[in-house]
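Hi everyone,

Forwarding the result from last night's run.
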Amino acid sequence: MKVLVTGANGQLGYDVIKRLNALGDEPVGADREEFDITDGKATEDYITALRPDAIVHCAAYTAVDKAEDDRDTCRKVNVDGTRNIALACEKIGAKLVYISSDYVFGGSGTQPLEIDAPKDPQNIYGITKLGGEEEAKKCQKHFIVRTSWVFGINGGNFVKTMLRLAGSHEKLTVVDDQTGSPTYTPDIARLICDMIKTEKYGTYHASNEGYCTWAEFAKEIMRQAEKTTKIIPCTTAEYPAKAKRPENSRLSKKCLDDAGFDRLPPWQDALARFLKELDLA
């Protein structure tokens, strides 16, 4: 199966390609050097010439705070870029996997969010990811995969930041009133590669099992990595950011169960495997 992976140099794209290679498929990694997804003609020309069986669209504008001041670029990449990918997919009859976010929701309440829960994004990144979902639907054979709190070997993330800061800080203040699920890129990459072999199109939630706050995540990082840095919980109000974050990012996995897909392992197990991966890197 020939699979085009956009954003191939990012955290998720890297592990999707790695998984496809392990399965004996034919992944083609593309980044800005290959074509500009915001250029409709360049996108169509590249995809129609390649004629992949599926596209895993990982490329995105993900700098959440920066996006508040760079709205046009964020929209062009996340909305217009996704439209261009979807239209090219539809033209050649390919399958499309669009990677979305917990940020499409308003983030209120304490219950896990079902796929059809009301959408109310609180920042420009979330607004554009929701817009990207609508564009992805222009390809009939689409999978929309919402995920959260991603970490992997190829790129910056919360785990790497905590470990780096632990080297020079005796204590760290971390937000304790936002709850969600960390997601390890090799785990979600495995699920995505299973999905594209099926015709079970639709919207899914995918993150590692279990929920925690950022502070609880940080404490577990320190515990597993055997660091002595103390984590001091704080509120979002005490640690303000330019873009508002959702308090509730718990994603219900009922959609995976209903479709017969395996859930991802617990986030604590994923963290342990990532720390081993870091030691080997």
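The mean pLDDT is 97.

Cheers,
N.
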